[in-house]
What we know:
Structural class: alpha+beta
Helix content: 25-40%
Order of helices and strands: HEEEEEEEHHEEEEHHHEEEH
Mean pLDDT: 89
CATH class: Alpha Beta
Shape: globular
CATH architecture: 4-Layer Sandwich
Distance between the termini: 77 Å
Low-confidence stretches: 237-243
Amino acid sequence: MAGGVAEKMESSSPMRHTTRPIVTGTSVLGLKYKDGVMLAADTLASYGSLAMFQDMRRISKTGSYTLVGGSGEMSDYAAITHMLEDLDRENKNANDGFEFSPKEIFYYLRAVMYQRRNKFDPLWNSLVVGGFKDGQPFLGCVDLRGTAFEDDVVATGFGAHLALPVMRNKWRPDLEEGEARALLEDCLRVLYYRDCRALDKVQLSKATSEGTRISEPYKLETDWASASFVAGPGGDLDGDGGW
Length: 243
């Protein structure tokens, strides 16, 4: 009897949606360069203010041409990657040689994010979509409301405030691969210094005419010797209690 009442009450309860992110990843950066597109992100997923998961891969491949990076709620990002895996599986099952281009993946994700927003059940993510197909690089960004745009440099999270100005200042269309990597590493280093949800363990990925590739996580070289970081209490730089 009690069980039946409980089941009835549960079935009549209002639908509940996620109202805020819980386990989150921070910035994803992307830029076009001479030979293709490069994406970068760290590997931290924070549980509130706790740096809990330090090997969270936030850049994934979709098919042969496309890379997708995600910031925001990591369970929602996992749901998005599963959607893209299903889409890729359907293409392979058709066995007709067709494969979605990066721009088509971008349009698909824009529609998904906008549809979920209209249902008041958003996927709490900002996504960077990059790829290379038929000699053309592609780079775009989609947020949880379905707002989408394309650009030569993009960034999500705190990267939109701290890294994007650096990228816009130093970017040029003929960047070599090494220069593009150095620029992204500089931006990730700035984020590690200034964003308390960032980590110095990062991944880089690229999409070129040869396909897509994602690096294994590695540590950035950092330097905390600046006086502003080592000052003693009350601004004492010498540690002797004086100015």
